[in-house]
Write a structure and sequence with these properties.
By secondary structure, the chain is an alpha/beta fold. It is built from ten helices and 13 strands. It has two domains: about 130 residues, Rossmann fold, CATH 3.40.50.10860; about 140 residues, 3-Layer(aba) Sandwich (Rossmann fold), CATH 3.40.50.720. Bound molecules: 2'-monophosphoadenosine-5'-diphosphate. The site of 2'-monophosphoadenosine-5'-diphosphate has 17 residues, from helix 6. Pathway: Metabolic intermediate biosynthesis; chorismate biosynthesis; chorismate from D-erythrose 4-phosphate and phosphoenolpyruvate: step 4/7.
Length: about 280
């Protein structure tokens, strides 16, 4: 019997690349990784996770819309997960789940180590205040950005995220409707789900960009197309989707579970080769 010990939970989850990524890392390092994708609606998540643990599950990645639920059920949290208020990596320790988030580290590693960009001193705009936004905000601050403006369709969530970051001088919220009056940003991160499920246009004012702007969508594939198209039309210098972050956050989780860090470049190159979304950078 082949016991599944690792899995990604989400809803929907059928198209997740995580099983491929973790299996490829395992092949690279000679580790027999058994990693599945498990669909769980929010109301069924806790039960599905306990069943998984009962069947020998040792580690789980968690994606939308379950990252805040994973945070809530974690018996222990890492400092970065606590600051993010979101968990994407669960590890079974002594019959309980320990929660961590590797999303922010994955994003920063993708932008700095892979793409060679310096985030320090940039004025940054974070679009969205859900689980994805919470997951990356602390790591952006730690990477040395000068200012983080959080803007969200529902302003109360942006306020809550800015408050939770606890750095009122650097991180604050602004109204989405007021984006056109906020000046220029050298880093713009789309952490909204606005274009998931094929909802068309992504309309933001060009005035928030400069010719030096780095624009990143945490989504990849179809869901990233509208924001990337907008960023290119606005002449942003560097435009990336979330595929690199996906691979890097997976590597962080893999290192936590298996004690060894995979080389992400070949896995990224393979997935990029199959991805419909083109990425541009000068
Ligand atoms: P995730 O875990 O991916 O962050 P989420 O917690 O449901 O998912 O958050 C989705 C984010 O996308 C939220 O910031 C949401 O804004 P609201 O808080 O106002 O719901 C944002 N979002 C979704 N659809 C959007 C749209 N059409 N325009 C702008 N923001 C949108």
């Amino acid at each position: 019997m082949h016991m599944i010990r690792y899995a990604v939970f989400g809803h929907p989850i059928a198209h997740s690349l995580s099983p491929r990524i973790h299996t490829a890392f395992g092949h690279q390092l000679g580790i027999d990784v058994r990693y599945a994708a498990i669909d769980a609606a929010p109301e069924a998540f806790v039960e599905a996770l306990e069943r998984f643990a009962g069947d020998g599950g040792r580690g789980a990645n968690v994606t939308m819309p379950l990252k805040e639920a994973a945070f809530a059920l974690s018996a222990q949290l890492t400092e970065r997960a606590r600051r993010a208020g979101a968990v994407n990596t669960l590890t079974r320790v002594d019959g309980r789940w320990h929660g961590d988030t590797t999303d922010g580290a994955g994003l920063v590693r993708d932008l700095t180590a892979r793409h060679g960009l310096d985030l320090r001193g940039r004025r940054a705009l974070l679009l969205g205040a859900g689980g994805a936004a919470r997951g990356v905000a602390p790591a952006l601050l730690d990477a040395g950005i000068a200012e983080l403006v959080v803007s969200n369709r529902t302003p109360e969530r942006a306020d809550a995220l800015a408050d939770a970051l606890g750095e009122p001088k650097r991180a604050h919220s602004r109204y989405w409707d007021d984006l056109g009056n906020l000046g220029e940003f050298e880093l713009i991160v789309n952490a909204t789900s606005a274009a998931r499920g094929g909802q068309g246009e992504f309309s933001l004012p060009f005035s928030i960009t400069t010719s030096r702007t780095l624009a990143v969508d945490l989504n990849y594939g179809e869901a990233a197309i509208p924001f990337l198209a907008w960023a290119r039309a606005a002449n942003c210098r560097d435009v990336f989707d979330g595929l690199g972050m996906l691979v890097e956050q997976a590597a962080e989780s893999f290192a936590l579970w298996h004690g060894t860090r995979p080389d992400t470049d070949p896995v990224y190159a393979t997935l990029r080769g199959h991805s419909a979304v083109l990425v541009t950078s000068d």
